[in-house]
């Protein structure tokens, strides 16, 4: 383990009372305090120039590590109120201002009821000997390494494990500098993957206030949150010293790989965001007015989009109680809250509950806003979506077309409106369900053009359309095209939504289907298992999404010749779908069809015929006689009957 002198930290009290004063004294401006607060670490200690605050204070001190004159700043201060064994390690950028660093650490102590005099921070600018950094290299140094040639990965891991608590500082919160710096990203990842090391993401009070304000500014905070996730890529991060950057990249590339590191860091960030959002609501005074309702609903929507459905529902119900009490039933915000509750219920698989809430919202909106208001179109889309999930495709198509007509008549820009893109996508989806793949592809491409123009390629909604187009191409037999689209969608979702989001699971499933179509069964099974891990984590073991993945696993096991394993998975999927969706849902018929095909492959023709005959009465009324699924089922029935007749004939001949 590290020597004690190498694990010393500077107290938060010292940073606030002494170090800040030293920085003020070094200021040449008459407004010393103000200038010191906004000065960056590089401003007060430029390693390419003469000694600054850090090296001046420690220049005459003998370094306890090598016995030479010139020590780390931490080695020149005394007294347990000022220095002690590090309790926390700070991950930050030398581009952060001194004021922000001190404010962040002071606030962390306050929020966690820690004594600033006994909270010791290992911070590289003060705890690494900057004299040796300069002496041992003629090149500019990062301030992280003392020696020119050193295996710094074990040293970092050892330090993180010894200290046991990393504070990752975010500033500014919506575009943190440290997430563009390779040392900071690698520190966070190292801490995340080190046993018994805790990681907290911290902000200054100023940044917290900015975060809260951005959340309520017309949804801008939501986009900022997505940007925060999408911008974390270790392979694009920078370092002051190129050799540091290359060494870290080589280490990552030969070890866990870029994607795993990025995903791990992004998962941490999402957990932090959810905690901060929940805290914002807890800290806000309940004023029983429209602003508070909007605030609760907006944060609830963010939580729901990140898979935190229970927390989201709690906020939406709180908003609804206020609406009922203060505004009454016939109010625009009451309708909005019903819609939000419907979205959460839909995400949880409660289709009847979601449909009921959407219909309540529609009734209020038509009464209060009029039938031609754009919000009415949104609710038409919501109702259409749940009808589609319930297997009522014609009803869904009717709702989506009402939404499109409303939007076209309201004068929305056909090239720049995300809501119009949503409606095109919805119509495409139900056309796909009805077997009109060419019509579906046309609508999806219209939606994609709008989404890319408005949101760019690295956005969850763009990923969704890539995913959907991939599925249509798969149905049309263009397997290579499908594989390319699913690969694009999965890469975006992993980066932006992370490894624990249901949409990421959806991409794993679809990517697996494309791999299965081209005969890569092992690859497909790997994708399905990844999807199942996420779905069980998010939804529990009894949910339609879990059933879908069981069905997919059964399908690929079937292709691999593991009929018993496949049948087991199909039966698990069937039990869930019958329980969650009812016995007459089209997706239940899909399982009957799959089981029938498997039994046929095993030569169990009588049992296979029974399954196909259970399938047909479900598909035909819903999908129609000419739908590809219905036609496939009819062909199977003919095939099985032929096999039975052939078997009977052979037995008679024998």
From TrEMBL:
TPR repeat boundaries on the chain:
335-368, 377-410, 421-454, 547-580, 589-622
| Alphabetical UniProt keywords | Repeat, TPR repeat
User: Under which name does UniProt file this protein?
Assistant: Kinesin light chain
Q: Tell me the SUPFAM superfamilies matching this sequence.
A: TPR-like
Q: Which organism was this protein described from?
A: Seminavis robusta
């Amino acid at each position: 383990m590290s020597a004690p002198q190498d694990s010393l930290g500077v107290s938060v009290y010292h940073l606030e009372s002494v170090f800040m004063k030293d920085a003020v004294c070094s200021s040449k401006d008459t407004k010393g305090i103000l200038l010191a607060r906004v000065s960056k670490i590089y401003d007060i200690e430029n390693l390419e120039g003469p000694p600054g605050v850090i090296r001046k204070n420690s220049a005459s001190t003998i370094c306890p590590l090598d016995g030479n004159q010139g020590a780390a700043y931490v080695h020149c201060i005394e007294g347990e109120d000022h220095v002690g064994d590090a309790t926390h390690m700070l991950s930050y950028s030398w581009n952060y201002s001194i004021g922000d660093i001190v404010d962040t650490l002071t606030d962390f102590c306050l929020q966690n009821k820690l004594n600033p005099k006994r909270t010791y921070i290992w911070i590289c600018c003060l705890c690494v000997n900057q004299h040796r950094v300069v002496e041992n290299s003629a090149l500019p140094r990062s301030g992280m390494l003392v020696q020119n040639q050193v295996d710094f990965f074990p040293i970092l891991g050892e330090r993180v494990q010894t200290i046991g608590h990393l504070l990752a500082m975010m500033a500014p919160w919506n575009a943190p500098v440290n997430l563009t710096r390779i040392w900071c990203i690698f520190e966070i990842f190292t801490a995340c993957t080190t046993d018994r090391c805790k990681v907290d993401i911290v902000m200054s009070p100023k940044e917290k206030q900015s975060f809260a304000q951005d959340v309520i500014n017309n949804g801008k905070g939501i986009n900022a949150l997505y940007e925060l996730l999408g911008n974390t890529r270790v392979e694009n991060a920078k370092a002051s010293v190129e050799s540091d950057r290359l060494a870290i990249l080589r280490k990552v590339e030969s070890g866990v790989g870029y994607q795993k590191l990025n995903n791990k860091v992004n998962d941490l960030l999402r957990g932090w965001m959810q905690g901060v959002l929940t805290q914002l609501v807890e800290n806000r005074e309940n004023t029983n007015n429209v602003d508070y309702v909007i605030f609760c609903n907006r944060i609830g929507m963010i939580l729901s989009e990140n898979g935190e459905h229970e927390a989201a529902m709690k906020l939406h119900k709180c908003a609804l109680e206020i609406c009922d009490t203060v505004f009454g039933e016939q109010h625009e915000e009451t309708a909005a809250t019903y819609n939000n509750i419907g979205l959460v219920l839909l995400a949880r698989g409660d289709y009847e509950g979601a449909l009921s809430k959407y219909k309540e919202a529609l009734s209020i909106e038509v009464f209060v806003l009029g039938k031609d208001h754009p919000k009415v179109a949104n609710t038409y889309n919501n109702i259409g979506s749940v009808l589609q999930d319930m297997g009522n495709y014609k009803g869904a198509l009717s709702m989506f077309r009402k939404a499109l007509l409303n939007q076209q008549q309201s004068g929305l820009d056909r090239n720049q409106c995300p809501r119009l893109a949503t409606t095109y996508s919805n119509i495409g989806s139900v056309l796909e369900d009805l077997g009109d793949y060419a019509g579906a592809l046309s609508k999806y491409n219209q939606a994609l053009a709008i989404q890319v123009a408005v949101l760019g390629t690295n956005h969850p909604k763009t990923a969704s359309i890539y995913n959907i187009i991939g599925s249509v191409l798969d149905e049309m037999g263009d397997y290579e095209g499908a594989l390319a689209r699913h690969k694009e969608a999965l890469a975006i979702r992993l980066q932006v939504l992370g490894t624990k989001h249901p949409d990421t699971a959806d991409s794993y499933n679809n990517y697996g289907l494309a791999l299965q179509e081209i005969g890569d069964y092992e690859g497909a099974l790997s994708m399905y298992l990844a999807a199942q891990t996420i779905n069980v984590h998010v939804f529990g073991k009894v949910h339609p999404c879990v059933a879908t993945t069981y069905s997919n696993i059964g399908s690929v096991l079937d292709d691999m010749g593991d009929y018993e394993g496949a049948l087991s998975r199909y039966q698990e999927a069937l039990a869930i779908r019958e329980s969650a969706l009812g016995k007459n849902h089209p997706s239940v018929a899909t399982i009957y069809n799959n089981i029938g095909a498997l039994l046929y492959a095993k030569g169990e023709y009588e049992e296979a015929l029974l399954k196909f005959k259970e399938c047909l009465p479900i598909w035909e009324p819903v999908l129609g006689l000419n739908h590809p699924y219905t036609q496939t089922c009819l062909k199977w029935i003919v095939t099985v009957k032929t096999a039975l007749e052939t078997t009977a004939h052979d037995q008679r001949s024998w």
